């Protein structure tokens, strides 16, 4: 769906409770931003997104610029406070292909510059295709890169902290440019390290082979190394697949999973079965 097709006519007002940088100063800035939303009518589920409305004026006379962000909190709210949600936001910059000039991303810089106490307008929540299954014996195969970790943070908090009855396998393949770029797995914020103690959970990390050239994380190789377990999960009737991050990730996964299936055609048949059974979900950006 194009962003212009979202209804933004009934925004909620949110107040910034906190804004914490969760990457070291030596690498890209990523912030964990907590918003307080006092309205009792705002409810959401893991895997959903909100739209942040950046006040204008903007290009073409638009009053607002809207950008979607995955909610990084479970349905019980950030820190079990149902009035608060969190977002994982990377401060982005874009290079003009014609002039070569560097321009700040509108929404990400707006959010990263906000101080506690600032008021913003949000809309949503949106999306229902990226939700955790109800059956606690389901297997979850999560593949994410960068800030695509946000919905998985919400999933893990829900199934382990709130439900506490999860019996199925949970495998998280997570990619970052370098070890310093790991989100929620580093010295600044180690939320997800807590789940290493869960018997059903395992995280597999992947990094760029050439970080100085801004090459993406080598998630494909990480998945190949664990091909036997990945393919076993894909064949199981109770397995669900979630992929989140840059849109280029889809082609990477199609290539490596085609190898596992024996051919691109065999993989597309299997992938279509997963889609038809509502067991294949993606959230891509960029």
List keywords for this structure.
alpha/beta, five-stranded parallel sheet, 6 helices, Elongation Factor Tu (Ef-tu), domain 3, 286 residues, single chain, Rossmann fold, 2 domains, 23% helix, six-stranded antiparallel sheet
Description:
With 286 residues, the chain is of the alpha/beta class. The chain has 2 domains: 3-126, Translation factors (Elongation Factor Tu (Ef-tu), domain 3, Beta Barrel); 139-285, Nucleotide-binding domain of ferredoxin-NADP reductase (FNR) module (Rossmann fold). It contains 6 helices and 13 strands. The strands form 3 sheets. A 6-stranded antiparallel β-sheet has the order 4-3-8-1-2-5, with helices on one face. It has a 5-stranded parallel β-sheet with strand order 11-10-9-12-13. It has a two-stranded antiparallel ribbon with strand order 6-7. Strand 3 and strand 4 (64-70) form a beta hairpin. Helix 3 packs parallel to helix 5 (248-261) and helix 5 (248-261) crosses helix 6. It is globular, with a radius of gyration of 19 Å. The model has no long low-confidence stretch (mean pLDDT 89).
């Amino acid at each position: 769906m194009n962003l212009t097709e979202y209804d933004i006519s009934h925004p909620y007002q949110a107040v910034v409770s906190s804004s914490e940088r969760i990457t070291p100063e030596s690498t890209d800035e990523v912030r964990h931003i907590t918003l307080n939303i006092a309205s009792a009518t705002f409810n959401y589920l893991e895997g959903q997104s909100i739209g942040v409305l950046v006040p204008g004026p903007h290009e073409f006379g638009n009053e607002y610029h809207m950008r979607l962000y995955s909610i990084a909190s479970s349905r019980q709210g950030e820190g079990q406070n149902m009035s608060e949600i969190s977002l994982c936001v990377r401060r982005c910059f874009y290079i003009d292909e014609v002039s070569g000039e560097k321009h700040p991303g509108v929404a990400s810089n707006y959010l990263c510059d906000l101080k506690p106490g600032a008021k913003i307008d949000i809309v949503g929540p949106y999306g229902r295709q990226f939700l955790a299954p109800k059956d606690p014996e389901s297997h979850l195969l999560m593949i994410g890169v960068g800030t695509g970790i946000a919905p998985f943070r919400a999933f893990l908090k829900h199934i382990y902290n709130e439900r506490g009855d999860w019996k199925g396998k949970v495998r998280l393949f997570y990619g970052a440019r370098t070890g310093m770029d790991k989100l929620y797995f580093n010295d600044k914020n180690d939320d997800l390290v807590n789940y290493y103690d869960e018997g059903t959970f395992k995280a597999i990390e992947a990094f760029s082979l050439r970080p100085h050239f801004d090459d993406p994380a080598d998630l494909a190789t990480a998945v190949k190394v664990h091909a036997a377990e990945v393919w076993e999960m894909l064949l199981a009737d109770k397995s669900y697949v979630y992929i989140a991050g840059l849109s280029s990730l889809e082609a990477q996964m199609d290539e490596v999973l085609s190898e596992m299936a024996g051919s691109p055609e065999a993989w597309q048949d299997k992938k279509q079965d997963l889609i038809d059974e509502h067991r294949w979900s993606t959230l891509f950006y960029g």
